[in-house]
Amino acid sequence: MKFSIDPRLQKDCFVLGRSTFCHVLLMNNAAVPWFILVPETDALEIYDLSTAQQTDLWAEVRKIAEFVRSEYPVDKLNVAAIGNIVAQLHVHVVGRRHDDYCWPDVVWGRPAPEQYAESVALELRAKLASHVQGFVRART
Amino acid sequence: MKFSIDPRLQKDCFVLGRSTFCHVLLMNNAAVPWFILVPETDALEIYDLSTAQQTDLWAEVRKIAEFVRSEYPVDKLNVAAIGNIVAQLHVHVVGRRHDDYCWPDVVWGRPAPEQYAESVALELRAKLASHVQGFVRART
User: Fold this and answer.
1) Architecture of domain B7-132
2) Taking the complete model, does pTM exceed 0.90, yes or no?
3) Does residue B108 sit at the A interface (CB-CB below 8 Å)?
4) What is the CATH topology of the domain spanning A7-125?
5) What does DSSP assign to residue B46?
6) Per-residue b/e over A95-125, b at no fewer than 16 CB within 10 Å?
7) Mean pLDDT score of chain B
8) I want to staple A16 with a disulfide (CB 3.0 to 4.6 A). Which of A27, A125, B100, B134 is the partner?
């Protein structure tokens, strides 16, 4: 199987690179640090992954969550596997602040109030590569 | 430390019992199967738990997710740690259907369209006790 990231995710996000099991995307919403991990699988639910794959997935989610907490002023992490709109399995990691644009509501279903300049996304990609063990940046 | 479940969660949910690490709650929203796991910890983020505790938490979330998939007609599982309103660490496991009351939107922030009769919650508690390994029902 040739794996490809769902077109809607590609449209809404920058594809930054990959960790061992997951592609790492940045939601194009500059108001909150919002990363999406897309494991390279055709399973649609976490619980259809093997136990070993689930362990890998949560370990990679943890690395991105720790990156978010170390790099941003974060009051709360929101970590979620939803998939109601994009069926391809993906996990959201969102760093929330008490003064962000939709606190305390969830970010899903809200339009992004501001987008990234591409240069900012590229800087973030470089930062992930130097701070997150096992992260390999996408070529583009 | 004497652990107690957050008052808002107690108000919104039935406390069904506990798994090894987590209390298992049923959100009082009869329109979707919606369980909440509350690990017995004062950590507010998953990533402040020890690695062993994180493994236990995800294993218990998995058991509840598998219960939901086996007992309900579910098109998609939504699994999320949010905590913007109730800070106490908790993980949502929600079984969604394409024809449920707020598909494809997320359930958070939407009022429950219908509540459970207490007898139904008690039946569910008994079903968890017989179907989910390690689940011990709450005394009430």
Assistant:
1) 2-Layer Sandwich (3.30)
2) yes
3) yes
4) HIT family, subunit A (3.30.428)
5) G
6) bbeeebebbbbbbbeeebeeebeeeebeebb
7) 96
8) A125
